[in-house]
Amino acid sequence: MILLDVSSWWLDLTTLGKTLWVITIPFSVLFLFQSILTFFGGDADDGDLDSDIEFQFLTIKNLISFFTMFGWTGIMGLNSGWSTTVTILVALAAGLSIMFVMAYIAYSMSKLVEKGNFNISSTINKTATVYLSIPSNRSALGKIQVKAQGYQTLDALTDDASELSTGSIVKIVDVIDDDILLVTKL
Hints:
- By secondary structure, the protein is of the alpha+beta class.
- The chain has 4 helices and 5 strands, in the order H-H-H-H-E-E-E-E-E.
- It has a 5-stranded mixed barrel.
C-alpha cells in the first residue's frame, strides 16, 4: 500500500519536483554523513583549517551543502506554490548563501590556528629548570625546560665549573649555533 502511495506521489510530481528530489536525497545523506564525521573529528585531514589556505569557496563540503540547501529550498518553494522561476532563484540564493557562510567559517577558523614558529632567542634572560643534567665547561649537552610558547624542552650547555644537576634553576644567557642555549646557575 505504501509503495503504491509513493509511486503515485512520484508520478504526480513535475519534472522540476522530481529533479529536486533526485538532488536532495543523496546530497542530504552525504551532508548527514559529513556532519557526523565532522562531529567525531573524521574530517581532520580535509585541509580546510591549514593556516596558509586562503578563503576557499569551492570545496567538497561547500558543494554538498549547496546542493542540500538548494534541493530542500526548492522543494519547499514548490510545495508553497511558488513559480518555477522563483523557486529556482530562491533555491540558488539559499545554496550560494550557505556556501559563503561555510567558506567564511572555515576561513575564520583558519585564522585561529596558532603559528608554531618558536623563536629560541625569546628565551634569553628567562629562568628555566634543568631537565637532564648539564655537564660543566661545555663538555656535553644537557636539557632544560623553559616556559616560552608553552613549555619547551631544549638543549643546553653551561660555562659553569660544576655540573648543573636535574631540578636546578638556571638563567638562559645566550643562544649558541641557533639551537643550543647557554645557561648559568642562579
